[in-house]
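Re: beginner question about structure tokens

> Can someone show what the tokenized structure looks like for a real chain? I only ever see the sequence side.

Sure, here's an example I had lying around. Input first:
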Amino acid sequence: MGSATVAGLLAAHVNGHAALILGTIALPTVPTRQFLMPAINRASDEGQRTGCVQLHGLSVGITLAHIAAAGIVWVLLPN
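And the corresponding structure tokens:
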């Protein structure tokens, strides 16, 4: 979250779209950390394999979306 926020602030001077995307990356990190990760751990501890796999898949999907968004920013920013 910190890295995306700082990068977004720095990118704001160069490209507004890139800054917006980086800000969008930063936003879901808190709920993911505060709610999704504990839910994954709880499902795992309680032996709820299906729930754990689904929640983990959601976590991986969020991470992949962040990576894709960062790649888009890389393309948007001038060399």
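Each token stands for a local structural state, so reading them left to right follows the chain. Residues 2-76 form one domain.
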